[in-house]
Task: inverse folding
């Protein structure tokens, strides 16, 4: 299989000729955020105008992000600060997904959740009625290998949620490892496994995949992944928007998360080259994830449709 | 295969009846350290007397440890502080292995080595004539995701060595990731991949396998492993001691590192249950690494041989 040459699987370059067919057959556009809407705190050119046009034509918009550092509320705030009106319930973040996973699986309220990650996860846990601990607060703690000191952990932790954590340290790694190895039945939940991401405009940084791999390395357990490419969040999108997945188009910059998520859920797919994936990665023979369409950036939709 | 039941692969419990056969056919005993000689900073019962007896009977002793936090010099010092006379050249640590790997592969002297790990690696690199950076010093640095700041890294880094690092942080993860992803031909060397280890007497802690997995997660590259179970160090042991491997017995507490290392090198093998492996793990049907002998602790050799 090859996204460049095989007629049956080839990805089409989006163009003024084929954009109308995609546009007319889709009722909702699902956007990834990092590398699609923005890079770090900077909007990608033409995004606001494109989203505005899509809304004006009656398309539903949803934002599905693997970045777990923010809650839905914090994402809505970020959109507003960038001049884009998006409501909380149009946002589906992996921090929300982690909390919803516990909720739909009847995670006992009396159990606690240890977080290797940032505030977004803790806020979503609290909103869902769960008790989180760890997170940013434990970023200041140290765990040194001193003789005769026992590293204590809370035996009532029933789940460890691991996401992107710029305050990762040995204390948290030991805490999470002890919970998973020693608390009977303790769940190991990964918000996502992105290797790297455009956390800042200028470069890529280790993503949640780095922290998740660390805990997988120390516990030798496989995580439950709730973010993309897992389609766990799709049930929530469908409940909210009542649109069949074949009428949705997933727009993202990552093959192994966004495009795989869209394809697994039965959505149309559009890869944008404004984030982590280059055209040569897409067309490399080793790549087996072929989006239906690809283009340089989101605003090409606006440009190709014309006035 | 099963270490308990299959006659051809079954591991024998060491006993007064079979210890003599092993003892007489072996000229050198190779010991792992953590979980075999000591736990954290505490000697395991009977170790000094057993080592003394082995030496008095003309057996050569070597210590092969995956713990990279110390150099050979620092290990010799630790042995001495615990009342055991061991010379530097009887010690083969994964910190030494990392430096020797670069040496035998003619790593250019003008290139630098970034270290995610502790002082032992930096000291061995320096002794071998290489320039290391990172390590403990970078444990105090922070890398926060601020817009418009570019995280700079040294383009002359040609290898990243990853070992156990109790000062792991996002700064080091980003630094190592950038070197491996952006410096052409940059090597990714793992001292070892132990999931956990008895870094303190009272409990296990995440091992180098945790940090190595993190960098594997962010770079999506496979490391070159120089510690056990890789037999890379065996050439150095053979050069030093001129003993055929079939006359050596590897004594260790880990199936996936010590026993696999011994078996891969053609050594006799003895598992001790004083460290990470329990008898039920050894005899679990999912375990496929069966040592020739197993016993509770090193001093059983002394006890079973009798006066």
Result:
């Amino acid at each position: 299989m090859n996204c460049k040459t095989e007629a049956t699987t080839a990805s089409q370059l989006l163009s003024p000729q084929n954009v109308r067919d995609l546009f007319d057959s889709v009722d909702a556009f699902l956007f990834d955020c990092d590398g699609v809407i923005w890079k770090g705190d900077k909007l990608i050119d033409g995004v606001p105008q494109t989203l505005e046009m899509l809304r004006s034509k009656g398309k539903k918009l949803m934002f599905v992000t693997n970045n777990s550092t923010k809650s839905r509320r914090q994402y809505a705030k970020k959109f507003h600060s960038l001049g884009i009106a998006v409501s909380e319930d149009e946002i589906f973040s992996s921090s929300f997904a982690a909390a919803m996973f516990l909720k739909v699986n009847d995670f006992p309220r009396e159990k606690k959740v240890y977080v290797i990650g940032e505030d977004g996860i803790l806020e979503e846990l609290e909103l869902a009625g769960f008790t989180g601990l760890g997170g940013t607060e434990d970023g200041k703690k140290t765990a040194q290998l001193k003789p005769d000191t026992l590293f204590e952990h809370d035996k009532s932790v029933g789940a460890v949620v691991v996401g992107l954590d710029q305050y990762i340290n040995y204390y948290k790694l030991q805490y999470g490892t002890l919970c998973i190895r020693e608390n009977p039945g303790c769940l190991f939940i990964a918000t996502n496994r992105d290797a790297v991401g455009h956390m800042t405009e200028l470069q890529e940084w280790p993503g949640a995949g780095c922290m998740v791999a660390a805990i997988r390395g120390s516990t030798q357990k496989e995580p439950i992944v709730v973010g993309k490419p897992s389609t766990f969040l799709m049930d929530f999108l469908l409940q909210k928007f009542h649109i069949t997945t074949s009428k949705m188009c997933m727009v993202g910059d990552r093959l192994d998360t966004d495009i795989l998520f869209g394809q697994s859920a039965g959505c149309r797919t559009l890869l944008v080259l404004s984030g982590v994936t280059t055209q040569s990665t897409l067309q490399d023979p080793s790549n087996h994830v072929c989006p239906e369409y690809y283009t340089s950036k989101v605003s090409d939709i606006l440009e190709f449709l014309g006035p």
